[in-house]
Amino acid sequence: MIFKIPAMDIAEVIVSSCSSHDDENVYSYKQRSSICQELLLEDQLRRKLKFFFMNPCEKFWARGRKPWKLGIQLLKIAMVTIQLVVFGLSNQMVVAFKEENTVAFKHLFLKGYTDRLDDTYAVYTQMDVYDQISFAINQYLQLRNISVGNHAYEKKGAEETPMAICQYFYKQGTICPGNDTFDIDPEIETECVYVEPMLPLLNRTLQKNYLNFTLDFHRLVTLELTFKLKAINLQTVRHHELPDCYDFTLTIVFDNKAHSGRIKISLDNDIAINECKDWHVSGSIQKNTHYMMIFDAFVILTCLTSLILCTRSVIRGIRLQREFVIFFQHHYKKEVSFNDMMEFVNGWYIMIIVSDVLTIIGSTLKMEIQAKSLTSYDVCSILLGTSTMLVWLGVIRYLGFFQKYNLLILTLRAALPNVIRFCCCAAMIYLGYCFCGWIVLGPYHVKFRSLNMVSECLFSLINGDDMFATFAKMQQKSYLVWLFSRIYLYSFISLFIYMVLSLFIALITDTYETVKHYQQEGFPETELHSFISQCKDLPNSGRYRLEDEGPISIFCCCKRS
Question: Which pLDDT score is estimated for 288?
Answer without folding.
Answer: 66
